Amino acid sequence: MDYAGIDEVINADGLRLILVQGLPSPWGQAAKAMIEHKGLSYIAGPQQPGGANPELVAWSGVNSGPVVAWNDEPPLNRWDDILLLLERLAPATPLVPQDAGERIHMFGLAHEMCGELGFGWNCRLNMTRPKPGEPPAGFAKKYGYNESDGALAIPRVTTFLRHLAITLNAQSQQGSNYLVGASVSAADFYWAAFSNLVALQPPEECPIHPAVRPMFEQVPPEVTAAIDPILIEHRDRIMRAHFKIPMEF
Ligand SMILES: N[C@@H](CCC(=O)N[C@@H](CS)C(=O)NCC(=O)O)C(=O)O
């Protein structure tokens, strides 16, 4: 990824995107792909995962990625705020359905993938689970690991995966390859990006550092068992049509 310095990003006009450097962070990769799909030009800056990132924190108020900023408007860090900004900047390539029922469904699915205690969150709780008897540390502490949510993380992930497969199978029977309605929406981008938390793309598509790859590939067997092939077919189709391959981070 061609990163500008953080100061340059903060002081620039136009659209800026802060990405978690070196990791296929799905929130950031979905935002990046949607920006590129919409033909918006932007400059990117790095968030150092696990680092203090003092300039980023002083500017945006958060120490995580993505952060998306437009001109002198306050920098955004929530997936839904980011999506609505992108829709405003490039309405001609909509990723939020016009139809109210489809829109409600799309935001429901997106929340279940991107929101707190959603699919991505639960995958991370499981990935950073402390050893028995040890207190949460590092990302587990930062992202709110506690025993009750930790115990529910895997069941929440498998329930979501089964629901998503039912949705895609029903869509397929209606003649649609997309999660919602008859055209691509933000939900398709989110699933493509978040699928990497349970079925990481091969190195040539997702060139994550070999030392970090095993952490992403440690998927509990009950999660792997809940991955209907239609989920990965959809991911691969959306990735090939709408994401840059190999992934840049
Ligand atoms: N702010 C996002 C979630 C962002 C998020 O969870 N970012 C993680 C991605 S793994 C991150 O920045 N990790 C690196 C770190 O915390 O240092 C949202 O609520 O929509």
Summarize the structure.
This protein is mainly α and 249 residues long. The chain has helices at 6-11, 26-37, 54-60, 79-89, 100-114, 119-127, 138-142, 147-173, 186-194, 213-217, 221-225, 229-242, and strands spanning 15-20, 42-47, 67-70.
Number of helices: 12
Helical fraction: 40-55%
Shape assignment = globular
Rg result = 18 Å
Describe this structure as you would to a colleague.
It is a single chain. The protein has a three-stranded mixed sheet. The relative contact order is 0.14. The chain is globular, with a radius of gyration of 18 Å. The protein has two domains: 6-89, Glutaredoxin, CATH 3.40.30; 100-242, Glutathione S-transferase Yfyf (Class Pi), Chain A, domain 2. The chain starts with 5 loop residues before the first helix and ends in a 7-residue tail after the last helix. α2 packs across α9 (186-194), α5 runs parallel beside α9 and α9 (186-194) packs across α12 (229-242). It has 249 residues and is mainly alpha-helical. The chain contains twelve helices and three strands. The structure holds glutathione. The site of glutathione (GSH) has 13 residues, from loops. The site of glutathione has 13 residues, from loops.
What labels describe this entry?
249 residues, mainly alpha, Glutaredoxin, Glutathione S-transferase Yfyf (Class Pi), Chain A, domain 2, 2 domains, three-stranded mixed beta sheet, 3 strands, 6% strand, binds glutathione
